[in-house]
Structure formats: C-alpha cells, structure tokens
Amino acid sequence: MSRIVGAAPLGAGPEALLDVACRVAEQGYLPPPEVTLAAREAAGDVANVTPARVRAALEAVIMAPRLGEGLQWLHESGVLAHLLPELDATVDFSQEAGRRHKDVWEHTKQVVLQSPAKPIVRWSALLHDIGKVPTRVMLPDGRVTFHRHAEVGARMFDSVSRRLGFDREQRQRIRFLILHHLRANAYEPGWTDAAVRRFDHEMGACLDELIELSRADVTSKRPGRRDEASRNIEALLGRILAIRELDARVPPLPPGLGNAIMESFQIPPSKRVGELRKICEDAIERGELVEREAAEYYVSYLRKQGITS
After folding, report:
1. How far apart are CA 77 and CA 38, in angstroms?
2. What is the pLDDT of residue 8?
3. Do 104 and 132 contact (CB within 8 A), yes or no?
4. What do you get for the CA distance between the two ends of the chain, in Å?
5. Residues pairing with 295 in the sheet
6. Sign of CA pseudo-dihedral 251, 253, 259, 262
7. Is the dihedral of CA 136, 189, 120, 169 positive or negative?
8. Considering only CA atoms, which of 132, 233, 146 is closest in space to residue 188?
9. Mean per-residue pLDDT for 241-256?
10. What is the CATH number of domain 1-83?
C-alpha cells in the first residue's frame, strides 16, 4: 500500500487526496509520513473538487472494509477539516469527563463500522453525533450532558447536505435518522401498546434503518451493557411486529363504528365520518383511549370533545 500511495502524485490535483483516503479505507495501510505531510499542505485544495466527487469519495470510504483507518487518515491529513468540519470537531471531544477513550470521534468510527453496509445507514452513523459539539454542558457534579443534540445535529446536517449535494430523498432519510437516532434506545418494557404503535407509525418507512442505526450505536465496553441494549432493541422490534400482526387481524377500532357515528351525530356517509374515526385513532395512539372497545365507548369520547356533527 505504501508503494501505491507513495507513487500517487499529490501535485496532480486535489482529487488525488480523495483517492489516497479511498485506498487506505479499502486496504487499511497508512501511506508514508511524507505523503500525509504533503496532503496537509494541499488539503485546502479539496474545496475545488465538485460536491458529487467529494460525496462519492466519502461514501467509498465509509463503505470500505477498513473505513476506520480511512477516516483517521482524512483527519490526520487535514482533509476532513475542509470537507466535514462538523465531524472533524468531534476528534478528542470527550463524552464523559476524564475519559479520553470515550471521545465522540472514536465512538462515531465504531458506530459506522458496526452498522450495515448501506449508504443511508452509514452516512447517518457518520453524522449522528455532530450535534454533541455545540450542545455539550459540563455539570458541577462531573456529569456531561448533550441536551437536544439530535435536533441540533439534524439542523447541522442541512448545511452538510447542501454542501455535498445529496438528492432530496437521501437528504430527507439521513436527516430523519439523525433526528431520531435516540428514540429506539429509549424504549422501556413499560411502554404501552399505544406508545409502541405510535413509535412505529412515526418512524414509518425509516423504521428498519433506524433499528439498524440503533443497534450500531451501542459501543459500551461493558458486555452487560451491550447485551442489555441489544435485548432492549430486539424487544421493541418484537412488540412492533406483534402489534402489527394483531392490528391486521383485529383493528384497534371496532367494526360498525362508522354507522354508530352517523347515527349518533345524525350525519350522512361522508368524509366527516372518516375525520371522526381519525380523532379516535389519534386518541388511541396518544393513550387517551383503549383500543378494541365497543363503538359506544368511542362515540362517548367524541361527545366529550364537544363534537355535535
């Protein structure tokens, strides 16, 4: 690898820097120190590379078998600071007071490596914690907090996505995963069926990718903690599938509710009937109503909401 990289003329253009990173990520061998030094001197030139070329090179790095080495070389060469300064800022950025090995950068590389080799998931893993840098607060008792870092990270990704030229679908999916990356790991067995159903509906088409990211986001060195987190995520997924199966067989709202609504509120078959059913469905998801009760139970709820027609 050293001979290959050493033979690459960095003076041939800034794209050669991206080629070196891709080779490192593919083979795992770092180039000679003089190549890295030359790269640092030329790193600013990557600003002249087209967004599509930069995005393709970065994606090649995070999809490669030795992506950790490739990402590390991008940092050490100074290239990462020009391409993704939001990510470069996580290097040596501690997540826990007094514990250097817990810095966000090392955690991020491990999460990317542990995630499935799917571009959307790996991009999300790469950028899921960039919001920790502007949100870190050191508390007097030594604890460290990153309040709302997922939301901040999603907003930061807006700038990244424009800079790298992601298409609309990629941008929306990656942003969604960054925004919600904490949700699955927050699951507790005490969640009601309504809460699990609401989570499933809110995650929508991104549920599988979110579960994959959540599994990868467990990097604790304590085996017990890793096993517990893994079991928790699997339990959530199991409940989602069980509730989907039950809802397919026995819908949350009873048959005949539409007729009961029309009779009780004296309204003809119309869009309004569907709207009133939707009010009941939303109340079930919020946990305000129990599913699979008699029709009068839901009609009574609608009356209490002041609905007359």
Report:
1. 8
2. 47
3. yes
4. 75
5. none
6. negative
7. negative
8. 233
9. 95
10. 1.10.110
Q: Between 273 and 5, name the one with better pLDDT.
A: 273
Confidence of residue 253 (pLDDT cuts 50, 70, 90): very high
Enumerate the domain spans of the chain. 1-83, 86-249, 257-304
CA gap 91, 150 in Å, rounded: 18
Residue 178: CB atoms within 10 A of its CB come to 28
Distance in angstroms (rounded) separating the CA atoms of residues 96 and 99: 6
The Cα–Cα gap between 40 and 80 comes to 10
Convert 77-124 into a string of H (helix), E (strand) and C (coil).
CCHHHHHCHHHHCCCCCECCCCCHHHEHHHHHHHHHHHCCCCHHHHHH
Binned at pLDDT 50, 70 and 90, residue 10 comes out as low
Residue 304, classed as helix, strand or coil, is helix
DSSP secondary structure string for all residues of 273-302? HHHHHHHHHHHHHTTSS-SS--HHHHHHHH
Q: What is the pTM of this model?
A: 0.86
DSSP string across 22-64: HHHHHH-PPPPHHHHHHHHHHGGGGGGS-HHHHHHHHHHHHTS
Query: Which among 272, 301, 299 has a CA at the least distance from the CA of 286?
Result: 301
3-state secondary structure 127-168: HCCCCHHHHCEECCCCCEECCCHHHHHHHHHHHHHHHHCCCH
- Which tokens is 6 given? 């050493």
Decide: 123 and 174 in contact? Cβ < 8 Å. Answer: yes
**What pLDDT, on the 0 to 100 scale, is given for residue 1?**
35
Is the separation of the CB atoms in 175 and 150 below 8 Å?
Answer: no
pLDDT in tens, 190-228: 999 999 999 999 999 999 999 999 999 999 888 788 889
Percent of residues, the chain, with pLDDT higher than 70: 94
